[in-house]
Amino acid sequence: MSKRTLIDVYGPTALVTGAASGIGAAFARQLATQGFSLIMVDRDAPGLAALAAQLRAGAHVSVDALPGDLTSARFVQQLTDLADTREIGLVVHSAGITSMGEFLAMPLEPQLKAIELHCVVTARLMHTFGGPMRQRGRGGLVLLSSNSAMLRAPFVANYAATKAYTLALGEALYEELREHGVDVLALVPGMTDTPLFAASQPVMGRARSFMQTPEDVVAGALVALGKQPVYISSASDRMAANVLGALLPREVALKMARRSMGYFFPHLADKKP
Question: In the chain, where does DSSP find H-type helix?
Fold first, then answer.
């Protein structure tokens, strides 16, 4: 008996948000090579169009590129309508906003935008597309969390809080939907060499030597999907999650997380408690 492929389990169509670059683009590329028709979403219209053209030519798959802002109610309604007209068997919600610095020193509006995108939009997408998957008895949902969600890292306070929501939602949905044939994975990628991560770091410092590639993160996630509720892509992040997130008292863990931020990002090291 031949081994079932991803498209056998989750095909024929995958929806990928944040698809123009970074981890989202890596998901789009790897799913296209496996024969998925793609619906790709991103605010970066030129980048989205370029990747769509590349995938159509190289992988010979159907690609719909939908540029837009996921925090716009009108645009989200467009995606909601797709659930009624297309059999979307896999949803990867990779779109994200990140920033680094002291919470009170940064403008509030971008923080609220991150809450909207990482929490409200995530809930809408999971609810909208998870329902039809449950009715069909098959499907997959991938949510992007972060190692900061487990460490509650200082200087990414709002980002960590929103990604903690994503992590908790993903784990809970894994248990709720597994008996209905729907696989859910909370992906915890850690430090990954993406434009989003680079743009948020004024000084990359020592972090660059610890970077993973988006391709490696996605390859591991696609193997983990259907086998476990959470995939932490980096061995060092898995160790940090176990030590800082579970074994140490919270006050000690927070102090160590603060020192870690200063080590990887020296521009934060002079921010004294």
Answer: 6-10, 22-33, 45-59, 73-85, 108-115, 122-136, 147-151, 157-177, 195-200, 214-224, 235-242, 250-264
